[in-house]
Amino acid sequence: MTHLDDNNIMAEKGRIDWFTVIIYLIFITLGWLNIYAASFDLESRTELFSLSGRAGMQLVWMSTALVLAFILVKIDVAFYETYALVFYLLGIGLLVLTLFVAANVRGSESFLDIGPIRIQPAEFMKFLIALALAKVFNTYGFNLMERKNLLLVSGLILLPLIIVILQKETGTALVYLVFIFVLYREGLPGGILFMGFAAIVYFVLGIKYSEVQWGMFSQGEVMVIILIIIFTAGMVFSYMKRKSVSVFIFLAAGSIFLGAFVLSKFELEIDWGLTALIALSVVVLYLIYLFIRFRKRTYLYILLFTIGSFVFLESVEYAFEEILEPHQKIRIEVLLGMKEDLRGAGYHVHQSKIAIGSGGLLGKGFLSGTQTKLNYIPDQDTDFIFCTIGEEHGFVGSTAVMLLFVIFILRLLYIAERQTSVFGRVYGYGVVSIFMFHLIINVGMVIGIMPVIGIPLPFFSYGGSSLWGFTILLFILLRIDKARKRGNFR
Amino acid sequence: MSKHNLLSNRRYVIAAILVIVSLVYVVQLFNLQVLSPQFRGYADRNAQFRRTLNPARGAIYDRNGRLLVFNQPTYDVMMVTREVARQPFDTLDFINTLNISKERFLELNETMRDRRRNPGFTSFTPQVFMQRLSVEEYGLLQEKRYKFPGIYTQLRSERQYNYPNMGQLLGYVQEVDRNQMERDPYYALGDFAGRTGIERSYEEVLRGEKGVEILLRDAHGRIQGSFRDGAEDRAPVSGKDLTLSIDIDLQAYGELLMSNKVGAVVMIEPKTGEILAMVSAPTYDPSLLTGRDLGANFTMLRRNPFLPLNNRAVGGFYPPGSTFKVPLAAAFLGDGVITAETRFSCYGGFAPMGGRPGCRSHPSPLGVQLSTAVSCNSFLCFALSNMLRDRSRFPSSTEGYDKLREYLLELGFGRRLGVDLPSENPGFIPPSSFYVERHGLGWHPHNIISIALGQGEITISPLQGANAAAMVANRGYFYIPHVVREIRGGTLDRSYTTRQTSRVESQHFELLARGMADAVTIGTATGINLSYLGITVAGKTGTAENHRGDSHSLFMGFAPVEDPQVAIFVIVENATFGARNAVPVARLMLQKYLKGEISEGDKWLEEQLINRVILPPIYLRGLPAEERNLNLWTQIPRQR
């Protein structure tokens, strides 16, 4: 009895994190005003509250989202934890159902019509995956690095991902990949995260500089090979703590390049591609020698990384040239600045850059943006809503929104980290990762740094599913946070 | 525990990724928004569409306020191809309504979609499909328009003419060409500008001032409203209306009289310099050069061998013949080489050159007044010869001739008068160098004796002839002849209201006026005697020899003698003696203007003159044989 009372008192003492709630309210209000601005029709001058306009509809979504948030906060935490996997399976079921009965909305088959309401189950799947992961990690004695667990966790993430790709909603599917950050926080080796990073760098460099040929390899390939050597040396240094070995790798590779450089001064035709390959081979042979000499498996892993990197590079080149469809190729080429295609693949981003760039320091003022009002930017009130902020409120406005997002996500990170239960922490990291991914990809695409992947900017982009999805995601975390056990110094 | 802390520290890695990427984004935002000012221009170019608002062109009235030229609305058929393609469209009904063939429909459709010919084509906005529907055709289309989704009409205005007269004088408007656009940035593609006549010389008055409307255009080229609610728009200013000095009835009558003849009639009100009528024969109906058939009609007119497009009244140049004796005598009197009392004897010719040039029989010797009346050749030959040979004043003939030429230029010859019409011909009074070159430094007045008869190299325009008559009528001054009497809401060029004089004194002109009056009563121009109507006429006939066939028939005069209301100059090409054709034309024109009608006694003359065909065969030179038949070019006189 005492114990129960005690527990109750603790629960009652828990407060909702008002700091986050206030930022949330600011976000949805700003989002609403910007949707009004983006969809403002110059001829009919839609009223802010008119239900026929997008802003009016968003107001409906907002009020229902708030009701939803209130209910979510009232529900007992145990409910989420107990039924996490059931919800997950229901979600998967809904995704599969959608696959069969979906209406085709601009090429995407991810929407489900329920009466007058159209929802996108893929949006809600985000928090269901987060919940499921939290639940699984919360199992007593769970160790991620056990193969069985690794498979289970990967499966939880990849199953919905594949279904969503089948729904032709690649952008949302990519969001699920962000759960790798959760795994990272829960013990996935940093090397894997690093390899993901390395793969992106290889891809960008390899493709972007693939047009100039430096001997047997392209300019990009030579650059990537040098990078592989540097990464290898770095790995030897950080995992083996052997400075001399890394220095030797640098010296060996460096002297090969230096030698080639000196030879080139004697009017000899130098094949830089071959030079790089020789340098890489020397590094690989050296690693093999080290492995045989010291019998340390880490050398073998590093060796695998080095060789794997090279194989990855070559297959990326091949995949890009032979497997990608021409329109996908052009999209990537435009993004990497290799081609200008302002009417076709580059149109969207070009116009969006014009919108943002034309905003200047202080912007054109509320409702005065021409790029967005006149439909120069497709999806101006959904995925490209950030253009409206940039055009009408300038550098000051867009930087302010960026800053608010950074504060918001850092706050969530703080909340996630202060959870006393694994369940709460894992879920919290899921929330952080999802918001981070949306922010980075969405804003990055609008300002021309990231490829065009159609995912919304949380709380700003128009749409009921996305607003509800993010609200649920956020408020379940706040609910869990409210119920956490305090004063338990671990 | 340490393992846990190690993993807990991973939050910093995640936070660092977030912060670093966000910083990169803020730098990119700074780069786009603060360091790249060009984006503002791109956005404006995207969004602002400057639509020109065309002003209405000024109308033109005659001196009595009758509307001559105005703007008629016509309609262009516009098509939004996207809308047409989306709904069922009955093409057969459509082409029947427009009364075009299927081939024509396809051709128009292709022209509209061809971006080389129609660079602004988009499927979202109305594009010109067919131009210039008449009001009737427009009505038919409008009735059925509900059946044709995506079809619209657009109003445009076109010149219309109430009278079929004086095509050359009014001129025509046409779409500007590239040259014009380069010369004057006011013009844009598709603008209309006056090409000839009044439309051209008063272009800047008639055209008005364009307005502009700044609209917002969306990504599909659709107009979405006005920019800043029209705060930066500018309304067009309509062109100013013109009142001509032309009396359209008189003009039409003159054109009727000149049917099937080649030549010109110019009538001027001496007291003002206003041109009352300016006939250039043959002429054409100005409404031929407007609307849909402008191109075809222009070609037809240009291929007419009698050159109806030329305004002979200002652009033609003719040897003046004896009509030139009047200004010559004025010059001699002004110079003082002859006085009112000076008499020269004439026995059928100029004695110093062995009776050449010859003269008709008349009493001798005569003074300047009577020799003007009888058109004595010898009198002017003596005067010319004496002036140029006056070694007390001139070291050689050259200096004497230079002096004479000065007088003639003051009297309005050998230079452009400055009439408010384009392509005025200055005529030709040769400079002395011309004769020095031809006859050597020591040339003798006898070398150029033919100019005393208004022959030789001298040419004048009919306008200059009429102006000289006006100067005599005014006894010594004139106003620069002009066809526009008033610019409504504007002011006429001051040069048209400034009296032009010469050094020749008024009494000398009085003498010549009396001589011309005598010519009508007792001399060579009795054919124009209208004393039975109570009108005193002063006149001088001319018969100008030329290398193009028969002599030109000329007449120069004014009436009434005492208080001149009108000065006139008539030239009928290759129509022999002045008295034969030019005089009757002038007789009828004077009656028409001064009395408003033709007396019963002259009806026969009128009819005969109208039906007289004097088409100089020389114009047919160079035509294919089958077209070298004058009957082909004879037209039925157009009675109004």
Short summary:
With 490 residues, chain A is mainly alpha-helical. Chain A has helices at 2-13, 18-38, 54-74, 77-101, 121-137, 147-166, 170-176, 180-185, 190-208, 219-240, 243-265, 272-294, 297-323, 326-335, 347-358, 370-373, 385-417, 422-446, 464-482, and strands at 103-105, 108-114, 117-119, 213-214, 217-218.
Subunit arrangement of the protein: heterodimer
Tell me the overall shape of chain B: elongated
- Give the number of helices of chain A: 19
Report strand % of chain A: under 5%
CATH superfamily of the largest domain in chain B: DD-peptidase/beta-lactamase superfamily
Widest sheet: strand ordering of chain A: 1-2-3
Domain tally of chain B: 2
Provide structural commentary.
The complex is a heterodimer of chains A (490) and B (640). Chain A has 490 residues and is mainly α. Chain A has 2 domains: 325 residues, no CATH class; 124 residues, no CATH class. Chain A is 71% helix and 3% strand. Chain A has a 3-stranded antiparallel sheet. Chain B has 2 domains: 76 residues; 386 residues, 3-Layer(aba) Sandwich (Beta-lactamase), CATH 3.40.710. In chain B, 35% of the residues lie in helices and 17% in strands. In chain B, the strands form 5 sheets. In chain B, strands 2, 3, 4, 5, 10 and 14 form a 6-stranded mixed sheet that branches. In chain B, helix 12 runs antiparallel to helix 22, helix 15 runs parallel beside helix 17 and helix 15 crosses helix 18. The model of chain B has no long low-confidence stretch (mean pLDDT 89). Classes of the chains: A mainly alpha (490), B alpha+beta (640).
Q: Features of this protein?
A:
heterodimer, A: 490 residues, mainly alpha, 2 domains, 3-stranded antiparallel β-sheet, 3% strand, B: 640 residues, alpha+beta, Beta-lactamase, 5-stranded antiparallel β-sheet, 35% helix
